[in-house]
Amino acid sequence: MHANSPTDVLIHDAQYVEEELQGKRGWGHSTVTDTCELAADGVRHLVLYHHDRERTDAELDHVEELARNWLRARNHEIQCTVAYEGLTLEI
Question: pTM value?
Fold first, then answer.
């Protein structure tokens, strides 16, 4: 991705929050922060997916809030959504 050519939608793995990564590095999954950093380079709508199946709805809401706060704190106006069963996107 390049800042001069924005990406409309990025759907990306965000399985872990930073605190969960200890002992899981190298498992092939991204953190919410890593995914936000990637999206910060020109994405209009970030969709976080591939959640731990043990997460509750409240925990997914927390993940979404973490991502939105990270983006907002860095002045990125990126729409951010946590994927959920039944979600549809119009592209």
Answer: 0.84
